[in-house]
Design a protein that fits this description.
The protein is an alpha/beta fold. The protein has eight helices and five strands. It folds into two domains: about 100 residues, Rossmann fold (3-Layer(aba) Sandwich), CATH 3.40.50; about 55 residues, Winged helix-like DNA-binding domain superfamily/Winged helix DNA-binding domain (Arc Repressor Mutant, subunit A, Orthogonal Bundle), CATH 1.10.10.10. Helix content is about 45%, strand content about 15%. It has a five-stranded parallel β-sheet with strand order 2-1-3-4-5. The longest helix has 15 residues.
Amino acid sequence: MKRDSVVVIDERAVFRRGVVEILDADPRLHVIADAPHGPVLAEADVAVASRAAYERLSGFAGPVVVCCAPADARPLQPDGRRLAIVEPHTRDAGELVEAVRRLTAGPPPEQRPADPVVFALDARARHVLRLLAEGADTRGISRALHYSERTIKSLIHDIAELLGARTRAEAVAKGIRLGLI
C-alpha cells in the first residue's frame, strides 16, 4: 500500500512532534519532514502547518491542513489550494488524520470544479451543524451538547463565518454541499 507523504511545519516544537507521531502512527501516512519554518518539500502530498507557517507556504502548491482556531481561519486565502482547518486543541487526534486523508484522497467529484476549499470542522462543530440541519434551535443544541446557549451561538457564528454563510440555513446548505454533514 502506498503511503501518502506529509510534511509538518509548525514553530511549536512539542506540538510539531505530537503531530508527527499521530500521523506516522497511521499506516496510510508517512511524515517525510518536519521543521519550524519550512521549506516544504515539493514531493510531499500534503502539508500540515500552523497559521503562521501557512503564510510562508507560497512555493507549495499541494493541499494544506492548517492547525488554527476557526476565528483565525477566516482571513486565510487558499489561492486555489485545497485547504482543511483543524483546531490545535482538539481532543480527538483522529480529526487531524481524517483531514489529511481527506485532502490526499482528493475532493468528491461534485466538488472538483466548483470549490477548491474543504473545511475540516472539528467533531463538535460538525455535530452542531448536523443538529442545525435537523432543525434544532440554540436551546436544543445547548441541551444536547451540555454547553451554554452563549457558547452555542458563538460556535454557530464561527461556523457560518468559516463557511462564508450569512444565515444558519445557508451554513447548513454549504455544510451539506462540502460533505461536512
